Amino acid sequence: MDKLKFYFSPKCLLIITGASQGFGKELAKQFVSQYNRQFHEDSVLDNKITVILIARNLNRLLSLSDELNSSNHSRVNNLNSSKFEHSILIHNAGSVGNPSQLCCDVKVSDSIERSRYYRLNLYSIMELTACFLSSKSIENSHKHIINISSLAAMKPFKGLLDYCVGKAAREAYFRHLAEEFQDSKTRILNYAPGPLETEMFRLLQKEAKFIREDFLKMQPLKLEVSVAKLLKILESDQYSNGCHIDYYDV
């Protein structure tokens, strides 16, 4: 890890959503630690890394979309007085939804709840990304946009209807975004971190009616191991823009 040279400049902006616990918290710790290691020989840094961590208590996670639409958008816009040379946005926030729902279970009466789900897990991601890209403070910087994805974006898991659809839609959005930025300094990656020791994993072990037994047999990965692999992938820069890379692919 010490030999990694991921950051292009000490004038860096790092934004992570869903950073209060689990994988998001580990992302914040390792990305900041890597920055400190990479620039530790600089005795005086006039431009320390600027970190924005967006998070809410898990039982209020659905309200995150409102936060992204207001205060955090303004926080990014308020950075316009700064000029960054490397800007990183990591979309980690999300929710599982109903872990035991089939296609035939979808009802019109559930439309409000479903709209809230996709506002958090899809629409707010699109809106925050657009806000990030339009900020004058990063317009000439190297950019990394990382979507924390899942194998569920690539294959169905019985019962995880909204989760699979949401993850697949997010990846479709980031592939489209990559097409728009294929000749620029903007690098986009969909990273599936593998099964992790998180609250979501424990929820599926308890409440996922159709796949519960599979998750009970599964050996989850350590958070720090998966984040370390993500950093190595980013540093190597040997991936197609907008592609999907699973932890087990490399």
From TrEMBL:
It comes from the Eukaryota. GO terms for molecular function: sepiapterin reductase (NADP+) activity. One of its GO terms (biological process) is tetrahydrobiopterin biosynthetic process. Keywords: Cytoplasm, NADP, Oxidoreductase. One of its GO terms (cellular component) is cytoplasm. This is Sepiapterin reductase. It is found in: Cytoplasm. It comes from Sarcoptes scabiei.
